[in-house]
Each structure stands twice: as structure tokens, then as C-alpha cells.
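Archive entry. Fields below.
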Amino acid sequence: MGEARGEVQLSPRLSWTRFGFRHGVHPAEAKELTRGLPIRRMPYPDEIVLPLRQHAGKPARLSVAVGDHVERGDEVGQADGFLSVPIHASAAGSVTGVEWWPHPDGSMAEAVRIKVDRFAPQVARERLVPRWDGLTRAAVVQAVQAAGVVGLGGAAFPTHVKLVPPEDQPIETLIVNGAECEPYLTSDHRIMVEYPGRVHFGIQVMMHALGAARCVIGVERNKPDAIRALRETGLGRAGVEVLPLTVKYPQGAEKMLIHAVTGREVPSGKLPAAVGVLVQNVGSVAAIAEVFETGLPLIERIVTVSGHGLRRPANLIVPVGTKLRDLLGFCEGLTAEAAQVIVGGPMMGLAQANLDAPVTKGTTGVVVLARSEARSDRIYPCIHCGRCLDACPMFLNPALLGDLARMGRYHEMAELHLADCMLCGSCAYVCPSNLPLAQLFQASKVALRRLPPQVA
Amino acid sequence: MTGVPLVVTASPHLAPRDTTPRIMWHVVASLVPVIGAAAWFFGASALLVIAAATSGAVAAEWRFGSGRTLADGSAVITGLLLGLTLPAGIPLWMAALGGGFGIGFAKLVFGGLGYNVFNPALVGRAFLQAAFPVAITTWPAPGTGFWNLRGDNFAWPGARGAADAVTSATPLGLLKFEGQDTPLASLVLGTTGGSLGETAALVILLGGAYLAWRGYLNWRIPVSILATVALLSAAIHSLDSTRPGPGFMIFSGGLMLGAVYMATDLVTAPVTNRGRWAYGIGIGALVVVIRLWGGLPEGVMYAILLMNAVVPFLNRATHPRVFGTGRRVTG
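PREDICTED_STRUCTURE:
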């Protein structure tokens, strides 16, 4: 299959059923700001703040006390059960406090403050993760959990949990998500260009742990250098192929990616395992490789810092726990045009009110939008233009769902498949009336969880 | 850096390319050549009638609307479109009243922009047709000098009509009541009697093509209406050659204005593509039925209004299959 396709096809148009999906939107990519910039290492800031909740699942349990000295890679929070991962110190220093601290998701979270030791060599004490060779599948899963690896694509779901698929649903195909369809973000792009070997090593580890025979790396066609690098490095690896994908948002959404690669739809309410597939973000795959290579847990990640409101955009290796303030300061700060600081991409990311919030394991990028790009606060009534229906990759009716949401008719929304909405924001992006549809749907999902089920 | 105030909004954070007022004002701009054509054929009367209908619509929106809604441009569209459906000689107060009625009773009582079921311009026209059947069917002939008024434009309410303007029946009226055909060339070029916007088929098509290219109207609706009318009338013409052929049917009457500008009104048209096809086919079929077998010479207005009424049903019946499910939702 890989041989038959041969050279990288860069024609923008192919079939939309294969290599892509139907509907979706085309926001300005704005990736040219950073896609050519090599990944650089950011210096250690004066202080690191590590929230104990950086992943989906249970937060880590505090395992240090104020006054303790920690080395780089030491555990500051233990995994609390299987659906949890530990948190490790990303720099040597002393614990100065354990307190409620602004979290990039907008809430406050218990966090460990570490004053970074300015003269420490920042070398880890020992190899904290075992070598990969000869580990059993269970040992790999355990090592990945101990290293605190989570999905680095934004959702931060613990990776080791995904490595243990249900017994009755074996994983045939591992899909590596290199679509990176959010505007501005280029961290995955740079990982694929600069560390293709690491991506392939991580794939090898994951395929071993999963017992999967086949792996497809899905990359949007707007990253020809990444496709080339992965193909050249992966020459001769059996069962691994690189698949160029249609450039469209949200190509990187799990269900859209699976459709593009396999042509199959994940049934509503089911996990990708239902079609024999597991999807892992390319950054997470590279992180697994790095963990086994260096023996260090996940204490730093690659972050795109970009936007038209930022003086010097960059792709940076950032210690987890670096405050946004320090990160933006390293990039020479905001311009006078800056309006919004967003953690994540501009389509699904979170606008920040407080720049003391730290970079967490799930921070893919920090985007500073200029005033001219930001949404206005003026909204108009829905004019039933139907653009949202043509944008929704799940084929929902966002206009109708929006009406129901404003009337609080959440049970009717549930019947209209609100649960299938993944909050990609395509509907709100195309809405000429500027209706906050994604926000309404998120609020409705929360409201629905709190309501008692309706008696029919 | 700390001096910059941060704006916190929900995602997505990027501003959309189009806004509702932008769409509406583009529609207004695309109507300018159509109005120009009306002025070319019917002189100053055309401009007066369109201006009167628009002022009526805008005044109603301003007086009874919820404040800032005038700026969205939708009331202006209603007024312009209503004006284009009227004969050049109609008294201005009637045109203004029609505009006010359309906005007030077809739009604002439903909740304003986005909530109306029926096209406000067509409701305004239906009201005028019911209230002033003579004034609205007195069709002046085109092209008798620009400053030459085509009727009692300045008549006061209650005044007896003293019209001595040159009138001419519309091609559809000629066909229905006198069995007389009109050459296709004069239909296409618009040198026939009729309402202001009836006579500029080519200009209307150009405006529609521009809007469709911008994505401000859905091409499926006019295409399905015109194709249905053409196919049905071709079939009927082949069975009974006294019936008009597709060329006459498409270029006569208000079909072009209705198909391109009225039926495609975003608010009152379906939101799904399959619904839009069904809606267009329904309008086309009703136009043919009313024109050939109804009591009126023209049926575009009622065809669109009737199909407006079934749009909620069409939306519900044509919703596409949700990704990852085997069934259609019925919303």
C-alpha cells in the first residue's frame, strides 16, 4: 500500500472521502510565523508552578512538603490509581509552597511552587525510566505511567491507559496524529521534521505494547517536509506508512482522522477501538520515545508560541510549569495590538485571564491574537443561512441546537446527538451572526450531566 | 506586557469572515443594477416607488423594531425587493404602506430578523394585492422618457385615479386573458409591461451569480426553481402547443426576481441542501400550476409564500445522517 502510493502527492484536491472527511472549515493557517523555526530550548525561569491536575482522570497526590529540595525529574505528585499519572519536578530547586494557583483551564488548582536553584546543573539524579529493550507489554505500560506521559495533543489523557485496550476489541491499526489542523500551531510539525527517528521509535514501542500490526501516520499535506522526513526515516519499517491528508479543520479530530485513514466512521458513543484503531498524537509518540531514550519522565514539552500579537514567535522546549508570563517574556513580550492570550490553538484553545497560569503537559501552544483577528462581542440573531450545517463535521444541526440551548431544552438537544458534538467550533467559526455556538454546547453538556435523566 | 488588557472569550477565538450585516448589505449592493434597469425602463417613477417602499419598511423597522436592528440592512432589502415587485404607476403611499406592512406583520411580530416564517417583501405585496387590486395590476409600458411619471405616483389616499399614462398588459396577462404570445427577445431584454423588477432578467441573473459566488445565496434554490419550471413547461408544451414553452415561462413575470432574490432569502429558506432542492422544485411546480391553471396570470408570489410555510417541515425531513449513526435525526 505504501509502495503503491510512492511520491508525496501535494495536489490540494483528491477525494474527500478518502484522505479526508466531509464538511469542516478553512481558517487562515497562519503557520508561516513559526513553521520554519527550529525548536530551541528555553532557559529555566526563576519559578516553576506544577499543578497536580494536568491530565484527564484523577489528579496526582502531593508527595513533597514545603521546604523540600527536589532534583530535576523527582516526583512531586504520585499517581492516584490507574487513571492518573505522577507529576515530576521540571527543574531542581526548593518547594516554597503548595497552594491554589490559576490553571490554564480557567479554574484554580492545587499546585506545587518550586523556586528554581539558579546554580544547579539541572542534571537528573539517575535513570528514572528503564531501558526499553526486553520489557514486556505490561512493563512498558507501567513505565509509561511512571514517566507521567499523557496525550500531548491537548486533551492530556493518560497514555498508558490507551495502551491497555479492552480484551474484546484488539487494536489492529495505530494511527499517529500529525494533522495539526489548528491555525498557528507548528510544534507537531517541527517534531516530525526534526525528530522523525524519535517518532518511529515511539511507534515501535507503542506497536509492541498494543500488539498492533499496522501503523499509519496521518499528516496534512501542508507539511511536505514532515512527510518527507518521516518517509525517509521510516524506510524499511514494516507496517508503518505515512499518509498525506486533506488540509482542513478539524482534520486532527480523532473521528475525522480515523475516517480519513480507514474510511470508517467510529459509531456514535463508541471509542476508536470499536473499529480496531487507536489514535495517538505525534508529540506523545515522540515523548514516549524520549522517555525511554533519556530515562527522564515527562518534564518538558515542545510549545509553539506564536500569534500576530507577539513580538518574536518561536517553537520552544519549555519546562512544564513555566508561567505564561515568563514564556511570553522570553519571546520579547506582546505588541500593542495584542488582545488575547490563548493556551492551545485559536479554534479550541482557552483564553487566559491570568498570565501566572503555567504551561502544563497538555499545552500545545500559546497564541497571542491581535485585536483585528479576535471576535467581536456583537452578535446577531440566527438568520438560518445554514452555514453551520455545512461546516459541522459530525453532520449535526448547530443552528437548531443553539436555539434549544438558549431555551434550556437540554433533553431535546441530547436526542439531537449533542453528545456527538466534539466542540471543534467549526459552526461558530462560520456563523455570520457570531453566535457562541460551541460555548452554548459546552454549557449544555455540563447542564445535561447535572440534570436527572428525563422520564419518557 | 502587563499593560495589555486581556480579552477572555469562549472558543473559537478567530473572527468569522462574514457577518450578517455584511451579507445583507452585499445583497443590497447587488440590487443596485436591478434598480438601475428599472429606472432605465420606467424612469423616475421606478426610483420613486422603490424609495417609497423602502422608506415604509425602514420606518416600520425603526419605529417597532428593537433599536439597533436598522444597521443590519435587512429592512432595506425588504423595501427594495417589495418596490421591485410593484408597477411603476402605483401611488407612493401604497408602496410605503406595503413596506411597513411587510416589516411589521411578516417580520417584527414574529420576533424580528431571523424569526419570520414568510418573506416580508412578498407578504407586503400580497397585502397590497388584496387591498388595492386595481392599482397593483395597472402596468405602464416601459420607455416613455425618464421624467415622464408612469401614473398617479403622487395621488393621496382616497383620491380617485385619474390615470392617463400609457399602460400595457404584462406578457403573462396577455397570454392568460387574450391568448397572445410575446417574443422571447423582448422578454429577455425587458421591453415589456410589468412590475419594476420583472423586466430585467439578465441583470437579476448577474446579481444572483455574484451573490452565489460570494456564498451569500445558495445556487441550489434558483437552479432548482428555474429547472423545474423549464422541464414542466417543456413537457406541457409538447403535449399541448397552445401552452407556453420554457423560454416564455422562465423569462416572463416575476420568476427571475422571485427565484434569485425572494426564494433565496436566508431566513425563510431551508437550511439543508436536500431541503433546498425540494423547496425549489416545489416553488417551480407551484408557479407552473398557478400560471397555467390558476385564476391569476402570475403565481411566483404565492408559490414562494406557500413553500415558505413548509420550510420547517423540509428542514426536519431532510436533515442529513449524523456521523457515526445509521439513522437520520428528526429535528
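CURATOR_NOTE: Chain A touches chain B through 71 residues (CB under 8 Å).
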